[in-house]
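pasting for the record
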Amino acid sequence: MLLKKVPAIILFIWLAFSTVFVMADNIRVISYGADLTEEQRDKVYEIFGLKDQEKKDIAVTEVSNREERKYLQDLVEPEVIGEKAISCAYVKLLGAGDGISVKTHNITWVTPEMYASALTTAQVKDAEIIAAAPFPVSGTAALTGIFKAFEAATGRTLNTEAKDLANEEMVRTGEIGESIKNNRKAAEFVIRIKEEVIERDLSDPEQIRQVIINISQEMNINLTDKQIEELVSLMQRINGLDLTGIRNQLEDIRSKLDNLAVQEEGIKGFLRRILDFLAQILNSIKNLLS
């Protein structure tokens, strides 16, 4: 009798575990800025592309301005943080090895690549993420909301030092982006430095400094002495973290950056061909009229 029940028991266990894994892959959490009105929350919910009937399946948490200041007060001016918590984040857990996917809406200063690189430092992985606000904001405070939503989704607390370093990385990358007027290029620059420092397990400041200088020359990026020293200090501390698996995620992010660059070149080439064609038509018309 027991033998007849064994297949049924095995099937039950398999279904139970399958359900758990499917549920784990589909856990979703929204982190709202605590100072949003209900109308603004509804607007952000729409920005996330979610339907009303999905609300019952999505957990919700809030981030206060006090929490945002905790991570940013020593990195940016108080007016940049502001006095209200506005930025929001949507996090959906993905399967193991799926990597990080980041999109933004109404975020004016932090690029998706900057978020993604900083998130690898904080040990966030395998998640679909959207950072958004009901109106344009810098986005520096959104990282705190992403952390909180990811922690709620996974049920584990991220390393505090890693979160501090992730915020610092985001700010330093943004500052370099401002100075070279290209935040995406700045993100690629920092990712390349981080990859090499981790790959070679560098802790000596002189070796890290040389890596920074070499990559900056390769990418034609001019840094001040202050920026170089800030990056040296940051990379030393990042390499001191337990960064198991970070290399693969960094490679994935840089691959996406490379693909974007190729796509942009393709679009530029297409536009150039259109402009050349229009110029030829105008010249032909001009010749006919002359």
